[in-house]
Design a protein that fits this description.
Layout: H1 2-25, E1 34-37, E2 41-43, E3 49-57, E4 62-69, E5 74-79, E6 88-96, E7 106-115, E8 120-128, E9 137-142, E10 147-150, E11 156-164, E12 169-176, E13 181-186, E14 193-201, E15 207-217, E16 224-234, E17 241-243, E18 260-261, E19 264-266, E20 269-276, E21 281-286, E22 296-299, E23 305-307, E24 314-316, E25 320-327, E26 332-338, E27 365-371, H2 378-383, E28 390-392, E29 395-414, E30 421-424, E31 430-432, E32 447-454, E33 459-464
Parallel strand pairs: 2-8, 10-16
Antiparallel strand pairs: 1-3, 3-6, 4-5, 4-7, 7-8, 9-11, 11-14, 12-13, 12-15, 15-16, 17-18, 17-21, 19-20, 20-25, 21-22, 21-24, 22-23, 25-26, 27-29, 28-29, 29-30, 29-32, 30-31, 32-33
């Protein structure tokens, strides 16, 4: 009797347990889930990620989505919670194509969507690995960024650039709202290279203009490149720059100080202080910061100053400091060597941090951003010895070193608690504090740079190594 009672309760428990399990796992029948794929053809490339996008829905609830590309060893299942039930899901899944795949391959992405009622549907997306993702490359010949057009000489603005793209160019567009320019050139033959050359007429009044160049390619999923060029149309030069680099040198590779900004300006009389680091130092004067054209002041065959990109350099005969004056309108200049009388910051490399000012010895390091190892704390500037500048053995007015830049640069060259310190403001000016406030930001490509702080010139030169 006891045995029969035991078996009865055992059977009842099994029925009850089975019923509870069914209540938790079984869902009523429902319609099939649906999928709306964003695009039926995806372009990828070796070593590049692509995105799978789709909208999933089910009238009762979604259970899972499975993504498969057997050739790329992809088999991913995304499972959805059933408490609460999920009736809609926006799929966004990224996957990187392995580096060893060929660029001519065409594969299938298989998607399987299952709902909680175990209804399943499948869909496929074509995956091509011959994608082209680079925007058209726009190379300006003229005007360069920051170009100066001297209206007293000419009010014409030649626009000359080259566009290159592997998949072919669909169109190029030149725009400047202030000048009423909106010109599109459609290229039905989709050339891989196209040169644009046209001259526009400027108003005779001085103004700043932004010229926008846009290029779109012919790839199945088009890529667009845009370049903005700032142009200054003026009746006189707002600035003149001293350049001691050979013609043809890129003037946009270095971070700060090349070419060098003037020191004083009275009308169109510009004055520079300059240090020639060797005998027979060659230099030019430029009417724009980023290029040797269109205004390059050098010498003609008779030794006279001319504004001509074919001019020869002005030569400083011996090493040392010079005062140089130039007037670009009268085409006159003068050069005079001088001996500095400003303070010499000696023995900087052997500085000492000390709370007692009487026992402190000056050092110069750097605080700022975009510099590996630096922040805005002068203690960090002290303990990061790789940031310390040293005296240039060949020039007591120069402090030198090397920094690794990581991006946009801001800097104050400093000792303990900002004494001494030189704030790097606009145009490469290193003004000694207390002085003008406002650190300037300088875009810089990551890499190792040589650093020169010239305390006599109050200029900073940060050049790519």
């Amino acid at each position: 009797m006891k045995k029969n009672v035991f078996l009865f309760f055992l059977a009842l428990f099994a029925v009850l347990f089975s019923g509870c399990q069914n209540d938790e796992s079984d869902f009523p029948s429902s319609d099939d889930p649906t999928i709306a794929i964003a695009t039926k053809e995806i372009y990828g490339a070796p070593n590049r990620k692509f995105e799978i996008k789709a909208a999933l829905e089910d009238d009762l609830g979604l259970k899972s989505v499975r993504i498969q590309i057997p050739e790329l060893s992809l088999d991913k299942i995304i499972t959805f919670s059933t408490d609460p039930l999920l009736t809609a899901y926006d799929l966004s899944y990224f996957f990187e194509v392995p580096a060893d795949r060929g660029t001519s391959e065409a594969l299938k992405i298989k998607l399987t969507i299952t709902d909680v009622s175990e209804n399943a549907i499948e869909d496929e997306i074509n995956l091509r690995l011959d994608g082209e993702f680079a925007a058209p490359l726009i190379s300006m010949i003229t005007p360069k960024e920051g170009a100066v057009i001297l209206l007293s000489s000419s009010n014409e603005m030649p626009v000359n650039f080259v566009v290159n793209d592997d998949s072919g160019i669909d169109y190029i567009q030149i725009q400047c709202a202030a000048l009423g320019i909106d010109e599109m050139v459609q290229l039905p033959d989709a050339p891989q290279s196209y040169t644009f050359n046209k001259t526009y007429t400027l108003p005779v009044t001085a103004a700043n203009y932004v010229l926008t160049i846009t290029a779109k390619d012919k790839f199945a999923i088009p890529n667009t490149g845009t370049l903005n060029i700032n142009v200054v149309a003026t009746n006189e030069y707002p600035a003149i720059y001293l350049c001691d680099q050979p013609k043809g040198t890129s003037l946009t590779t270095d971070a700060v100080g090349v070419p060098m900004y003037f020191h004083d300006k009275n009308g169109q009389d510009f004055e520079f202080k300059y240090y020639a680091d060797k005998d027979n130092k060659e230099l030019y004067f430029l009417g724009q910061e980023s290029d040797f054209a269109p205004h390059c002041f050098g010498l003609d065959a008779s030794g006279n100053l001319i504004d001509d990109v074919t001019s020869t350099p002005i030569i400083l005969p011996t090493k040392g400091y010079y005062t140089i004056k130039i007037n670009p309108n009268t085409l006159s200049y003068s050069v005079a060597k001088y001996t500095p009388s400003s303070k010499v910051w000696a023995d900087i490399a052997n500085g000492l941090w000390h709370d007692d000012e009487a026992q402190r010895r000056p050092f110069v390091s750097v605080c700022g951003g975009g510099i590996q190892g630096a922040d805005w704390d002068t203690w960090t500037a002290w303990v990061q010895t790789g940031l310390h500048l040293a005296n240039n053995p060949e020039n007591p007015y120069q402090l030198v070193g090397e920094y690794t830049l990581t991006g946009t640069l801001e800097a104050t060259f400093t000792g303990q608690w900002w004494s001494p310190s030189w704030r790097l403001i606009q145009n490469g000016i290193g003004t000694m504090s207390p002085g003008e406030n406002g650190n300037a930001k300088y875009p810089a490509a990551p890499g190792v740079y040589k650093v020169i702080l010239d305390t006599e010139l109050e200029r900073v030169f940060i050049t790519k190594k």
